[in-house]
C-alpha cells in the first residue's frame, strides 16, 4: 500500500455509518477516485469543512490498486471558493459541472487537461459577475472535446462550406451542423436559431475572462441547454440533466 498525494476537487460526499464519510474526488494525478474518511464526522468541524463539495483540496491517502474505495490519511484546503458559495446561481452551475464530471468520467482515468479545465472554470466562475450559465456551456463544450465528442458549429457537415447563421440545422448523432441545402438530404434533429448559433460559436472561441460580457436571451439559453443536453443524452451513457440546473 502506497501513500499518495494529489490536488483534488470534492465532487460529492456521502455519509457512511455513524461517523464516516465517502468522498468522491476528481484528482489531478488519479482522475476520479473515492475515499473513505473514517471518523470524520466525530472530529473537529475544520476537517469536516474541508471535505465539502466544490472545494479544491490537497489530499494524502493510502492507495491500493484494485480497491474501489481508498483510505484518507489527511487533507488540507487550497480554495473554498467563497464568492461562489455565496451565490445561488454560481453554486448551481458549479454543481452541474461536478455532476458531469461524476457521470461522464471513469474511475482512475487520469486526464490532466480535464483537471486544469475544471480548475480554470471554477476559478473564473468564483470571480464571475453575470451571465453565469456561459461558464456551464463553456465547460460542456471543452469537456466534450476532451472526452472525444467534439461539436462542430462552423462548417457544414454535408458540403464543407462555412455555415450561415440563418440556416443552421443540427444533427445529434454527428455532433455537427448542416446548411439549408444539405439539411434536405440528411436527418437533422434541431433547427438552431441565429442568435443561439451565434452564442454557441462565440463560446467556443472566446476566453473564460470574457464570458461574463456575452448576454444570451432567455430563448437562446433554453435552446442551448436543449441542444447540449440532447447531445449528451445520446452520447454519454448514464447522462442526466444536472438536478441543480432545474432550480434556476
Ligand atoms: Zn451544406
List the helices and strands and how they pair.
Elements: E1 2-16, E2 20-27, E3 31-37, H1 45-50, E4 56-63, E5 69-79, H2 82-85, H3 88-104, H4 112-127, H5 133-146, E6 168-171, E7 176-178, H6 180-183, E8 190-192, H7 194-205, H8 218-235
Parallel strand pairs: 3-5
Antiparallel strand pairs: 1-2, 1-4, 2-3, 4-5, 6-7, 6-8
Bound molecules: zinc ion.
Zinc ion is lined by residues 156, 158-159, 161, 178-179, 181-182.
Concise description?
The model has no long low-confidence stretch (mean pLDDT about 95).
Number of domains: 2
Number of helices: 8
How far apart lie the N and C ends?
Answer: 45 Å
Sequence of strands across the biggest β-sheet: 1-2-3-5-4
Q: Which overall shape is indicated by the principal axes computed on the Cα atoms? A: elongated
Approximate helicity band: 25-40%
Label the structural class.
alpha+beta
Q: What are the bound molecules?
A: zinc ion
- What's the count of strands? 8
Main sheet: strands, sense, barrel: 5 strands, mixed, barrel
Please name the fourth-level CATH homologous superfamily of the largest domain. Answer: Recombination protein O, C-terminal domain
- The CATH architecture category of the largest domain equals Up-down Bundle
Tell me the series of helices and strands, N- to C-terminal. EEEHEEHHHHEEHEHH
Q: How large is the radius of gyration? A: 20 Å
CATH class (first level) name of the largest domain: Mainly Alpha
- Mean pLDDT score, rounded? 94
